[in-house]
Design brief:
Structural class: alpha/beta
Helix content: 10-25%
Bound molecules: inosinic acid, magnesium ion
Radius of gyration: 17 Å
Shape: globular
Strand order of the largest sheet: 4-3-2-5-6-7
Distance between the termini: 22 Å
Number of helices: 4
Protein backbone atom coordinates (compact mmCIF):
# COMPACT_ATOMS: atom_id res chain seq x y z
CA UNK A 1 0.00 0.00 0.00
CA UNK A 2 1.21 3.50 -0.82
CA UNK A 3 2.08 5.48 2.31
CA UNK A 4 -0.41 8.24 3.05
CA UNK A 5 0.71 11.50 1.38
CA UNK A 6 3.87 9.59 0.34
CA UNK A 7 7.46 10.72 0.64
CA UNK A 8 6.84 13.26 -2.10
CA UNK A 9 5.15 16.32 -0.59
CA UNK A 10 5.65 17.96 -4.02
CA UNK A 11 2.60 15.99 -5.15
CA UNK A 12 0.32 18.18 -3.04
CA UNK A 13 2.49 21.08 -1.89
CA UNK A 14 3.95 24.06 -3.69
CA UNK A 15 6.31 24.74 -0.84
CA UNK A 16 6.91 23.88 2.81
CA UNK A 17 6.63 27.10 4.83
CA UNK A 18 7.41 25.79 8.31
CA UNK A 19 9.00 22.44 9.07
CA UNK A 20 8.11 20.43 12.17
CA UNK A 21 11.20 21.59 14.10
CA UNK A 22 10.53 25.24 13.36
CA UNK A 23 6.92 24.88 14.47
CA UNK A 24 7.86 23.14 17.71
CA UNK A 25 10.49 25.80 18.50
CA UNK A 26 7.94 28.58 18.04
CA UNK A 27 5.30 26.72 20.08
CA UNK A 28 7.83 26.43 22.93
CA UNK A 29 8.42 30.20 22.81
CA UNK A 30 4.67 30.87 22.92
CA UNK A 31 4.29 28.46 25.84
CA UNK A 32 6.97 30.32 27.77
CA UNK A 33 5.30 33.69 27.15
CA UNK A 34 1.91 32.36 28.21
CA UNK A 35 3.36 30.71 31.34
CA UNK A 36 4.96 34.00 32.32
CA UNK A 37 1.95 36.22 31.54
CA UNK A 38 -0.60 33.97 33.27
CA UNK A 39 1.43 32.99 36.33
CA UNK A 40 -0.91 32.66 39.33
CA UNK A 41 -4.04 33.02 37.16
CA UNK A 42 -5.04 29.44 36.29
CA UNK A 43 -6.01 30.20 32.67
CA UNK A 44 -8.42 28.19 30.52
CA UNK A 45 -6.99 27.34 27.09
CA UNK A 46 -9.87 26.88 24.68
CA UNK A 47 -9.17 24.82 21.57
CA UNK A 48 -11.23 25.69 18.49
CA UNK A 49 -11.98 22.36 16.86
CA UNK A 50 -10.91 20.86 14.62
CA UNK A 51 -8.04 22.81 13.12
CA UNK A 52 -6.37 24.04 16.30
CA UNK A 53 -6.15 20.61 17.94
CA UNK A 54 -2.48 19.74 17.14
CA UNK A 55 -1.35 23.27 18.02
CA UNK A 56 -3.37 23.28 21.25
CA UNK A 57 -2.04 19.84 22.25
CA UNK A 58 1.58 20.90 21.68
CA UNK A 59 1.11 24.33 23.27
CA UNK A 60 -0.34 23.13 26.57
CA UNK A 61 2.66 20.81 27.02
CA UNK A 62 4.92 23.87 26.83
CA UNK A 63 3.02 25.62 29.61
CA UNK A 64 4.40 25.00 33.09
CA UNK A 65 1.78 26.72 35.28
CA UNK A 66 -1.58 25.34 36.49
CA UNK A 67 -4.18 25.66 33.73
CA UNK A 68 -7.10 23.78 32.24
CA UNK A 69 -8.54 23.06 28.82
CA UNK A 70 -11.90 23.14 27.10
CA UNK A 71 -13.05 22.66 23.52
CA UNK A 72 -15.47 24.48 21.26
CA UNK A 73 -16.44 23.57 17.70
CA UNK A 74 -17.74 26.06 15.16
CA UNK A 75 -18.57 26.15 11.46
CA UNK A 76 -19.20 29.04 9.12
CA UNK A 77 -22.81 29.57 8.17
CA UNK A 78 -23.77 29.06 4.52
CA UNK A 79 -21.29 28.94 1.67
CA UNK A 80 -17.79 30.29 1.94
CA UNK A 81 -18.46 33.14 -0.48
CA UNK A 82 -20.86 34.78 1.99
CA UNK A 83 -18.82 36.65 4.55
CA UNK A 84 -21.53 37.34 7.08
CA UNK A 85 -19.20 36.18 9.81
CA UNK A 86 -22.01 34.33 11.48
CA UNK A 87 -20.79 31.16 13.05
CA UNK A 88 -22.73 28.03 13.90
CA UNK A 89 -21.89 26.57 17.28
CA UNK A 90 -21.45 22.81 16.83
CA UNK A 91 -20.12 22.08 20.27
CA UNK A 92 -20.15 24.52 23.17
CA UNK A 93 -17.75 24.61 26.11
CA UNK A 94 -18.37 22.07 28.89
CA UNK A 95 -18.20 24.59 31.72
CA UNK A 96 -18.90 28.20 32.62
CA UNK A 97 -16.06 30.66 31.98
CA UNK A 98 -17.43 33.46 34.17
CA UNK A 99 -14.58 35.02 36.14
CA UNK A 100 -11.97 32.88 34.41
CA UNK A 101 -8.99 34.17 32.34
CA UNK A 102 -9.62 32.68 28.91
CA UNK A 103 -7.15 32.14 26.08
CA UNK A 104 -8.66 31.15 22.72
CA UNK A 105 -6.33 28.90 20.72
CA UNK A 106 -6.89 29.01 16.94
CA UNK A 107 -5.06 27.56 13.95
CA UNK A 108 -5.26 30.51 11.54
CA UNK A 109 -6.80 33.97 11.36
CA UNK A 110 -7.90 34.74 7.82
CA UNK A 111 -10.74 37.28 7.41
CA UNK A 112 -11.01 37.41 11.20
CA UNK A 113 -14.78 36.87 11.10
CA UNK A 114 -14.73 33.57 13.01
CA UNK A 115 -12.59 34.83 15.86
CA UNK A 116 -14.43 38.14 16.03
CA UNK A 117 -17.69 36.25 16.49
CA UNK A 118 -16.23 33.85 19.01
CA UNK A 119 -14.52 36.52 21.05
CA UNK A 120 -17.82 38.42 21.34
CA UNK A 121 -19.69 35.24 22.24
CA UNK A 122 -17.25 34.39 25.04
CA UNK A 123 -16.91 37.98 26.26
CA UNK A 124 -20.67 38.04 26.87
CA UNK A 125 -20.19 35.26 29.44
CA UNK A 126 -18.09 37.64 31.54
CA UNK A 127 -14.75 35.87 31.84
CA UNK A 128 -11.97 37.69 33.73
CA UNK A 129 -10.21 38.28 30.39
CA UNK A 130 -10.23 37.00 26.80
CA UNK A 131 -7.08 36.81 24.71
CA UNK A 132 -6.25 35.11 21.43
CA UNK A 133 -3.39 32.80 20.53
CA UNK A 134 -3.14 31.91 16.83
CA UNK A 135 -0.58 29.74 15.07
CA UNK A 136 -0.87 31.64 11.77
CA UNK A 137 -2.20 34.95 10.50
CA UNK A 138 -2.96 36.12 6.95
CA UNK A 139 -3.18 39.81 7.75
CA UNK A 140 -3.60 40.74 4.07
CA UNK A 141 -7.04 39.04 4.06
CA UNK A 142 -8.47 40.66 7.18
CA UNK A 143 -12.03 42.03 6.98
CA UNK A 144 -12.45 42.77 10.69
CA UNK A 145 -9.83 43.81 13.18
CA UNK A 146 -8.93 41.00 15.58
CA UNK A 147 -6.15 41.60 18.10
CA UNK A 148 -3.87 38.55 18.24
CA UNK A 149 -2.12 38.48 21.60
CA UNK A 150 0.15 35.52 20.79
CA UNK A 151 1.05 34.73 17.18
CA UNK A 152 3.12 31.87 15.78
CA UNK A 153 3.83 33.14 12.28
CA UNK A 154 2.59 35.71 9.79
CA UNK A 155 2.01 34.15 6.34
CA UNK A 156 1.31 35.42 2.81
CA UNK A 157 -2.14 35.21 1.19
CA UNK A 158 -1.88 31.53 0.21
CA UNK A 159 -3.96 28.48 1.11
CA UNK A 160 -1.98 26.42 3.58
CA UNK A 161 -2.36 22.87 4.89
CA UNK A 162 -0.89 20.70 7.61
CA UNK A 163 -0.49 20.84 11.38
CA UNK A 164 -4.28 20.82 11.80
CA UNK A 165 -5.15 22.82 8.70
CA UNK A 166 -7.14 20.95 6.08
CA UNK A 167 -8.13 21.04 2.47
CA UNK A 168 -11.49 19.18 2.24
CA UNK A 169 -10.73 17.54 5.62
CA UNK A 170 -7.41 16.13 4.42
CA UNK A 171 -3.80 16.88 5.36
CA UNK A 172 -4.51 17.80 9.01
CA UNK A 173 -2.03 15.13 10.11
CA UNK A 174 1.02 16.59 8.36
CA UNK A 175 3.61 17.58 11.00
CA UNK A 176 4.64 20.62 8.91
CA UNK A 177 2.80 23.54 7.22
CA UNK A 178 2.92 24.13 3.48
CA UNK A 179 1.19 25.86 0.58
CA UNK A 180 -1.39 23.66 -1.18
CA UNK A 181 -0.68 22.89 -4.84
CA UNK A 182 -3.28 24.53 -7.07
CA UNK A 183 -3.57 21.32 -9.09
CA UNK A 184 -4.87 19.55 -5.97
CA UNK A 185 -7.48 22.25 -5.31
CA UNK A 186 -8.63 22.07 -8.95
CA UNK A 187 -9.04 18.32 -8.64
P1 LIG B 1 -11.77 33.46 9.12
O1 LIG B 1 -13.10 33.55 9.78
O2 LIG B 1 -11.82 33.94 7.69
O3 LIG B 1 -10.65 34.14 9.88
O4 LIG B 1 -11.48 31.95 8.93
C1 LIG B 1 -10.76 31.20 9.76
C2 LIG B 1 -10.95 29.74 9.41
O5 LIG B 1 -10.89 29.49 8.00
C3 LIG B 1 -9.83 28.96 10.02
O6 LIG B 1 -10.15 28.53 11.31
C4 LIG B 1 -9.65 27.84 9.04
O7 LIG B 1 -10.51 26.76 9.40
C5 LIG B 1 -10.09 28.36 7.72
N1 LIG B 1 -8.92 28.78 6.89
C6 LIG B 1 -8.57 30.02 6.56
N2 LIG B 1 -7.46 30.05 5.80
C7 LIG B 1 -7.09 28.75 5.66
C8 LIG B 1 -5.98 28.11 4.98
O8 LIG B 1 -5.10 28.72 4.36
N3 LIG B 1 -5.93 26.76 5.09
C9 LIG B 1 -6.86 26.03 5.77
N4 LIG B 1 -7.90 26.59 6.41
C10 LIG B 1 -8.01 27.94 6.36
MG1 LIG C 1 -10.46 26.42 11.98
Amino acid sequence: MKPIYSEYPGEFLEEILFGADKIQARVAELGQMISRDYAGQNPLLICILKGASPFHADLIRQIDIPMSVDFIAVASYGDSTKTTGEVKLIKDLDRSITGRPVLIVEDIVDTGLTLNYLKNLLTNREPASVRICAMLSKTARRLVEVPIDYLGFEIPDEFVIGYGLDYAERYRNLPYIGILRLAVAQG
